[in-house]
Design brief:
The chain has helices at about 5-10, 55-70, 115-125, and strands at about 25-40, 45-50, 50-55, 80-95, 100-115. The chain is of the alpha+beta class. The protein has one domain (about 20-125). Strands 1, 2, 3, 4 and 5 form a five-stranded antiparallel β-sheet that branches. A hairpin with a 5-residue loop joins strand 1 and strand 2 (about 45-50).
């Protein structure tokens, strides 16, 4: 018997059809990237940024800016000062349906700090 006929038969017989509840959704944000700062010996350089996690994108960017300002975003490299950073953000959305978790991720990059366009281009090409 085709599914459409079964559904119609159950409805006519007063049998409730199963209702599918929307799954539980959860979003998380993680970021890493590259910092750009002034070396103690002179000149500027780049180094991998420390990993940051948050429940919202706004919260993640707030943490990243605070760590940039305090000088902790450089994973312990020890620049004289940090000028800016490229933050690579992974937005992960997990939905649970009938006990099974399904995950989808989106990736974006943002720049924070006081970087020129040339410095942003340099950081965009940096890979560690």
């Amino acid at each position: 018997m085709p599914i459409q006929q079964v559904k119609k038969y159950k409805q006519e017989a007063g049998v409730p059809l199963p209702s599918y509840k929307k799954g539980e959704k959860m979003k998380t944000y993680t970021a890493s990237g590259v910092v750009y700062g002034k070396n103690w010996g002179g000149g500027f350089g780049a180094y991998p940024a420390s990993r940051i996690e948050a429940k919202t994108k706004k919260g993640l960017l707030t943490k990243a800016k605070a760590e940039l300002k305090s000088g902790r975003l450089d994973s312990g490299m020890g620049f004289e000062f940090l000028k800016g950073a490229r933050i690579d953000i992974q937005e992960t959305e997990t939905i649970t349906i009938k006990g099974k978790a399904y995950t989808r991720s989106n990736y974006i990059s943002e720049f924070i700090g006081d970087l020129t366009e040339k410095e942003q281009d340099f950081l965009f090409d940096c890979e560690f």
